[in-house]
Specification:
The protein contains three helices and eight strands. The chain is globular, with a radius of gyration of 15 Å. The two termini are 16 Å apart. The protein is an alpha+beta fold and 133 residues long. The protein has one domain: 2,3-Dihydroxybiphenyl 1,2-Dioxygenase, domain 1, CATH 3.10.180. The chain binds zinc ion (ZN). Zinc ion (ZN) binds next to β1 and β5.
Amino acid sequence: MIKKIDHIGIAVKDMDAALKFYEDVLGMKAEGTEVVEEQKVKTAFIPTGESEVELLESTSPDGPIAKYIEKKGEGIQHIAYRVDDIEKALEELKAKGVKLIDEKPRRGAGGAKIAFLHPKATFGTLVELCERD
Ligand code: ZN
């Protein structure tokens, strides 16, 4: 079901400052930023080999990323695994009794279909499934 680590989601307070670090210090190159309105988040994807880093900055003080940073501080917020067929993956997980945050996929950045599993079911890590063309 799982193909690879698609990306690692990192919550940051200041996207521009974080991008400066990744680009100027680490020499990586972001693919541009995108706002996902429903999630109240601005994202930037930074490809690195087979996977990517996803920087996440809240666009609103009541967004999920703002709340996450308030509680836990900046840092790794989720890990995303690539799947070929997200509907099928969710069905399989549901049949296995895995607690899901999203029973149905929603739209993520870059037109991906994404769904989150509940951290209680995954030993404390927020896991995202991600299907892309
Ligand atoms: Zn993600």
